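Protocol step 4 of 6.
Sequence for FIGfam110555 (Rheinheimera sp. BAL341) entered exactly as in the expression construct, tag removed. Do not edit the line below.
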Amino acid sequence: MLSNTKTECSECGKIIICVHRRHKTLQYCQSCYQRLFKALTCPSCKNIVRLPVHFPNAVCDNCERLKPCIRCGKQGKDVVRLSKYGTVCNSCFIYFTTPKVCSECAMESRRYRRGTDLDPNAILCERCARKNTHGTCHTCRRYRKLLQSKDNSTSICFKCYSLGAIPCKRCKVLHPAGFGSICEQCYREDLLERRGAITVNLFATDVFRALFYEFSQWLAANKGILVASIQANKYAPLLQQIENHWGQLPSYKELVSRFSVAYLRRFKRLIDWLSEQKYLKTDAEVKTWDSETRIIEKQISHSNLTETIELICRKYLTSLMHQVSTENLKIRTARLYMCAAIGFSKVADRNHSQELNQSALVKYLKSAPGQKASITRFVNYLNLELHTDLHLPTIAKTNSVRIKRERKLAEKMYKLLSRAMDHDPGKNMEWTVLSLQFFHGLSVNTCKSLIKSSSFQEVQDGHEFNINNQAFWVPSLKYAAEHIRNQTVDFDNVKLLPMTRS
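Step 5 output, structure tokens:
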């Protein structure tokens, strides 16, 4: 095979224009070929051919190509490439080439193309080369070279463009030609059958083979053939583990104790089918018990407490579980109590003293004031068992909710004033409701009922409302707009203004 690329002879090192012979990726000029390749008898086919004298036990190229591929073991007419490691088929030859850097994305790739419209010497990987010409066909959803449809609305492949819709070879239903000779429904049915035929070999008994086949058919009927063909094999490992451990379907309690509810949740459709077919009877109490106990154990193991404090928490857990067993306490309530106890223990563990003392309790309740009721039982347990002197502190209520509400009301009022129109009755009504909430702390419903009952009278620069023999005055929209027009409002420092009149 001749080449016009200037290169060096692998034997003498001379620059040659035409490579006279290649042998296992080595290149020879005509002089070296005449000197190193002699007419000898091929050890394999017994024909007289030129063989390299510096390679012992060499055979001719025809015999070399009859050997199996050194990567995949394939043997036949497709095994035609000769690498320095041995015979390689066309499919595997790409893995024996040197990767090159793509000119566009700078990623190394063994599959590349040379030349673009702008640069004939550019090297592009397949992804960059196909980026502007290939895509997913709008009709058959296959990744191919795309053309514009006849109405220029979508991009479709050549088969869908030229043939359009063709009848399925099996069910005769029309489908996009690019999908193939059979429609997607028939293809998915075949795929489910082929995958099922392979998967049933995981099971040793006919009982579990029949169970998996029944479940596959149920999944196809209830969730669709697409979901069944893709996900049916996902549920086989659970059936295989059940068969290996019990040899038959166990009770739900045995199943949960072996695998846990969290693990069985991955196979929810299989459990639902077993329950629907009366093969398995689920138990809500067993499920709740397993979930809550595992959450408690996970909280303790992930809290990274010291050995002493963890021992106290586990003794407290034992006392809680004793109350659960005597039906004096629910397992979920015990888990909430343990959550508060572990939170308190983590705060105490981070202190220098690493003791469950009063300062740690105060610090914990400041960070989690909503846990005061849950931590009470743990505090009583510590006082009784460890003879501590802990007591629940009184946590001052925060005014953050009230301040946030007043700030929102002030912002709404200021926006309303910025576009105030005194002749608009809708905005006057909105202003009155906001004023009663902001200045007097009344609820929205109370404000609206006052306005609807007409229990108010117009006074100078505003309105006066009467409720329970108490008068509430609010400024009119016009009066407020005139006084605030040239002022800047600080919404972070708004305060409730006492504007009642006796």
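Step 6, annotate. The first strand starts at residue 7 and ends at 8.
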